[in-house]
Structures are given as C-alpha cells and as structure tokens.
Specification:
Layout (H helix, E strand, L loop, with lengths): L4 E7 L2 E8 L5 H12 L2 H10 L3 E3 L2 H13 L9 H10 L1 H8 L6 H8 L6 E3 L14 E6 L4 E6 L26 E7 L6 H9 L2
Parallel strand pairs: 1-5, 3-4
Antiparallel strand pairs: 1-2, 5-6, 6-7
Helix pairs in contact: 1-7, 2-6, 4-5
Length: about 200
C-alpha cells in the first residue's frame, strides 16, 4: 500500500538516518517493524555502537558520485549490468541502500550488516517531513531522549517551536510538517497491539 513515511535516527544531537519509505508506512507495518527491532537489546546495542560511523549524504558526496558515474560511462543515471558491478564495488552500502529493494525498516538491519565499515553514508530525506500532505507517518528513534516517537501527517492545525520539525515549515503550504502523535520510552516500549492502538486512536 502506498503509505509514504520517514524514519529518523538521532544520536548525540545529530540526525544519523533520515530514510524515505514509499509504501507500508503505517503503524501496523513500518511502525511495528521498528518496534520489534527496538525490542531486541542486542540489535539496539550494535546500532548505537555503529551510529558514530554514520552520516547523511551531502552535496560533496553527490559530486564525487557523479564524477565516478561519468568515469564508468554512465551519463544518464541508469546503470547497465557492468556499471552496477563497478558501482557496487565503489559504493557497497549505497548500492544496497538504493538497489537492494529494502523492505520497510530494513535500513537499520543493513547498518548492522555494514557495521565494520570505517564510514557509512545514508540518503538524506529529512525534509520529507516538511509537507504532511505527502509524509503520512514519521518515526523518530532518538537515543538522546531515550524515545521512540511517532508522527502523523495531514497536519493542518499548526506547529510550534517546540516541535521537532518546526524549522522545516516555510509558511507556503496549508499543510504543516508532521506532528507528534505518541512518544514511547525506549526502555518501556508497549506491545504491538497497544502500540498500533495508541498510534491510530483519534
């Protein structure tokens, strides 16, 4: 189902992950997938150990990638089989992130898989939270606040300076950034049924 969403991970006051999901972003799907991950202490521990190596993709990264694509003869952004092999060798994590057909929530598992890399650079989709007409759900794992936060789209009621995504609003849309719906302590997460009920209740 085409329910678009955003998954954000924060550590040491820095956004480490900001991943757009095209489908299955509702609490019963992506939300529960993330909840299950967060209920696995070993996964959470390894993720926290890995995050210092993680940063968001930036313009300089894009410039270097464009130069690499040009060097292997790719001018239109579409890779043939041979070029995909070369791209995968040069950018193993990015190849999996972009072409690996990850299901909802699997980026966190992918980070664990690549935890021995010196640096991991992830796509930066943070601004997708800006217009809640399109961003229907957002999930924030904030290790600084020890919180798993759920945000709801279709926000026409406004937003305040206290809201996480306040800085994204430019005043040009009837839809504000996504608004927080629920906040759960990471060390006291609900079961799946309660989680979905609380996220979906009016």
């Amino acid at each position: 189902m085409g329910t678009r969403s955003l998954t954000v991970v924060v550590q040491n006051h820095e956004v480490k992950v900001a991943r757009y999901e095209q489908s299955d972003g509702y609490p019963e799907a992506l939300g529960v997938t993330l909840l299950r991950f967060l209920k696995e202490p070993t996964c959470v521990e390894i993720l926290q150990e890995t995050l210092p190596k993680v940063r968001l993709w930036n313009q300089e990264d894009q410039k270097q990638q464009d130069e690499f694509l040009h060097s292997i003869g790719c001018e239109n952004g579409i890779l043939n089989a041979k070029q995909k092999q070369e791209f995968q060798k040069q950018y193993p994590f990015r190849y999996r992130e972009r072409f690996g057909k990850l299901k909802e929530g699997q980026l966190l598992e992918l980070l664990l898989e690549f935890r021995n890399e010196e640096e991991i650079v992830t796509d930066n989709d943070y601004e997708f939270a800006k217009d809640s007409l399109f961003c229907e759900w957002a999930y924030v794992i904030d290790f600084d606040k020890n919180a798993f936060e759920v945000y709801k789209g279709l926000n026409t009621l406004g937003i305040s300076e206290e809201d996480r995504f306040f800085s994204l609003y430019d005043g040009n849309s009837d839809y504000y950034p996504v608004k927080i719906k629920q906040r759960f302590p990471l060390d006291n997460l609900p079961d799946e049924d309660e989680f979905v009920f609380l996220c979906k209740k009016p």
